[in-house]
Amino acid sequence: MKYVYGPVPSRRLGRSLGIDPIPSKTCNYQCIYCQLGKTTNFTNERRDFYLKEEIYKEMEESITQNKEKFDYITFVGSGEPTLCKSIGELILKAKELSKKPICVITNGSLLYNDDVKDEIIVSDVVLPTLDAGDKKLFIKINRPHPSIKYEKMIQGYIDFRKEFNGKFWIEIMLMKGINDSKEELLKIKNKLDLIKPDRIDINVPIRPPTEGWVQIPDKNVIPILNDVFGEYNNINFPERGVFSVFSSNFEMELKTLLERHPMRQQQIFETFSSKKFNEQDLLLQLNILESQNKIKKVIYNNQTFWKLIN
Ligand code: SF4
Question: How far apart are CA 113 and CA 253, in angstroms?
Answer without folding.
Answer: 37
